[in-house]
Design goal:
Helices cover 61% and strands 0% of the residues. The chain is mostly helical.
């Protein structure tokens, strides 16, 4: 190889290196711009809102938008789950259902008066945890609960 051939090869390599440096600087600038944009988008937003803003932004690369859409899909569309079997519940009939309020109050007062007319020993058995001189904690001693 002659000296001229070497110089032309050297010049060609220097041109390729300069093109690569220029392309690298463009990529770094784009990366910085995207990071700044992402920071602005994410300010005060939750993760799902950030993903939505990413996949809706047509200026971003298609691959990034597709990843953001896939990540947010689980939060936007509910999972299809099998329907649970209905519970077969039957309620007891309320004997007081047809009474007016006045009749119901009269019935309950009558029951209250019947309970109050019982001897104290019987009433104590009806209401567990309360004994003569007791404090209502379920024991017969007077220790605080």
């Amino acid at each position: 190889m002659t000296d001229a051939d070497l110089r032309s090869k050297l010049t060609e390599c220097e041109n390729v290196i300069q093109q690569l440096v220029t392309k690298l600087q463009e990529t770094i600038d784009e990366n910085d711009r995207l990071r700044a944009e992402l920071t602005n988008l994410a300010e005060g937003a939750n993760a799902h809102q950030v993903l939505q803003s990413l996949y809706r932004n047509r200026d971003l690369p298609e691959a990034l938008r597709a990843k953001a859409a896939a990540a947010s899909l689980a939060h936007e569309v509910p999972k299809l789950l099998p329907e649970r079997a209905a519970l077969n519940l039957v309620a007891d009939a309320d004997p007081d259902a047809g009474l007016s309020l006045a009749e119901l109050v009269e019935k309950r007062r009558k029951r209250c008066y019947e309970i109050q007319s019982l001897p104290l020993e019987i009433r104590e058995q009806m209401v567990r945890g309360i004994a003569l001189g007791g404090n209502g904690n379920g024991s017969d001693d007077d220790t605080p609960s």
